[in-house]
Amino acid sequence: MKYMLMFVGEPEAGEEQMAGTMKAVESWWAKHSQSGAIVGGERLQSSANATTVRLGGSAPVIVDGPFAETKESIGGFAIVDVPDLDAALEMTKSWPASPLVEIRPIWED
Q1: pLDDT tens by residue, 54-100
Q2: Contact 3/104 with Cβ under 8 angstroms?
Q3: Residue 62 and residue 108: Cα distance in Å, rounded?
Q4: Coil, strand, or helix at residue 62?
Q5: Rounded Cα gap, residues 3 and 106, in angstroms
Q6: Which of 23, 24, 34, 77 has its CA 20 to 30 A from that of 55?
Q7: Domain spans in the chain, listed from the N-terminal domain onward
Q8: Three-state DSSP class for 94?
Q9: How far apart are CA 104 and CA 33, in angstroms?
Q10: What is the DSSP string of 70-90?
């Protein structure tokens, strides 16, 4: 079953702390990629670089920045192919960076 793990965090920490975190993330990513569990994913640029398109009115409204007014944003994601939600949870428990990971099943026909 495929799941999307969305890594949610607050604005980046100091440079030294970030370097240590990125090293741990690279190690986590390599471990799960080598096992075949990670089948895709990317690190995202800051939400300050986002563009939001609001639909539903008479014309689309394009806004610079994220949709939600919040400190937290999605910093990256992984697509994993694992047997079940329990396996996705086990992977996620060892995520070394952001304090929140949202797991969603991917729609499969």
Answers
A1: 888 899 888 876 656 566 788 899 999 999 999 999 999 999 988 89
A2: yes
A3: 31
A4: strand
A5: 5
A6: 77
A7: 2-105
A8: coil
A9: 19
A10: -S-EEEEEEEEE-SSHHHHHH
